[in-house]
Amino acid sequence: MTSLRPHPARRSGQFAVAAGLALAAACGGSKEQTKVGQATEDSPRAAVNNDPIQSENTGSAIIERIDVNNDQKPDVFKHYSLVDDAPDAKGNKVQKKVLIRKEIDVNFDQKIDIVEYYKGASGKEIKEREEFDLDFDGRVDEIRKYEDGTLKEVNLDLGFDGRMDTWMFYQMTQNEEGKPVNRLIERRRDTNADGAIDVWEYYVKGQLHKIGTDSNGDGTPDQFTRVDAKK
Ligand SMILES: [Ca+2]
Ligand SMILES: [Ca+2]
Ligand SMILES: [Ca+2]
Ligand SMILES: [Ca+2]
C-alpha cells in the first residue's frame, strides 16, 4: 500500500543532509549592489582558484558558482539578471542583481538535482517553483509550485518511471489556535500508471476525510467513501 506521507520514501537521509548543506551554503543574500567594473578593479582574479564562490559577470547577468564540499568543483549555481539602478554619488553606473534561478548538485556528482526558480525585484525575490531529481537519475521526480511564496501544489513521480503520478494541493487556512497553516486539501493519484487519475483523496484539517474513485472512466470522481478520522 502506498504511504499517505507527503514525501516519497526514497528521499533518503543522505539526500536531506546533503541538500541542507548545499542550501545553507547557497543561502547568501542577493541584496548587495554590484558596481560595474568593481570586481576587476578591487579584487583582481587570484592566481589560485580557491575561493569557494566564483562570480562571472557577463554584463547583463551574473552566475555565481559555489563549491560547497571544497573539491574545487562548483555544486551550487546562482543565476542573476542585472538591472540598472540609480547612479551612485560619483555618477557611476550601478546595477542590481536579481536572483532568477538556483541549481544545486546535492550529491556532488556534477549533475544538478534541484532547480529553484525565483521571481520578484532585487532583494525581494520569492521562490516560484522547485524541481527535484530525488533518485539522481537525471529525471525530475518532484515539482513544487508556489504562489506569493506559499506552497500550492506538489507533483510527484513516486513510481520513478518518468511520469508524474501524484498531485497534491495545498491551501492556507487556520489551525485550531487560529494561526495560519498551509494544509494539504486534496491528493490525486494515478495508481495504475496509465496516465489518468483514478483516486481523489480529500483532506480536512490535514486528515484524510473522503476518497473518490472514477467508476465510469470519464476522468472525474463519481463514487465517494468517507474515511473515519478516528485512529
Ligand atoms: Ca564541490
Ligand atoms: Ca547530483
Ligand atoms: Ca529522478
Ligand atoms: Ca490511472
Quick overview of this protein structure:
This protein is mainly β.
Description:
There is one protein chain. The chain is mainly β and 231 residues long. It is 8% helix and 42% strand. Strands 1, 2, 3, 4, 5, 6, 7, 8, 9, 10, 11, 12, 13 and 14 form a 14-stranded antiparallel beta sheet that branches. The longest helix is centred in the first third of the chain and has 14 residues, at 13-26. The radius of gyration is 22 Å and the shape is elongated. The model is unreliable at 1-43 (pLDDT under 50). It binds calcium ion (4 copies).
Helix-strand layout with pairing:
Elements: H1 13-26, E1 33-35, H2 38-42, E2 53-57, E3 61-66, E4 76-85, E5 94-104, E6 114-119, E7 126-132, E8 142-147, E9 150-156, E10 166-174, E11 180-189, E12 199-204, E13 207-213, E14 223-226
The site of one calcium ion has 7 residues, from loops.
Based on the model shown, name its key terms.
2 helices, mainly beta, 231 residues, single chain, 14-stranded antiparallel beta sheet, binds calcium ion, 8% helix
Shape: elongated
Number of helices: 2
Helix share of residues? under 10%
CA-atom Rg in angstroms: 22 Å
List the ions, cofactors and other small molecules found in this model.
calcium ion
SSE class: mainly beta
> Can you write the helix and strand succession as a string?
HEHEEEEEEEEEEEEE
Determine the N-to-C terminus distance: 18 Å
Stretches where pLDDT is under 50 for at least 5 consecutive residues are 1-43
Describe the largest sheet: 14 strands, antiparallel
Question: What's the total number of strands?
Answer: 14
Q: Please report which band the strand proportion falls in: under 5%, 5-15%, 15-25%, 25-35%, 35-45% or over 45%.
A: 35-45%
What would the average pLDDT be, to the nearest integer? 84
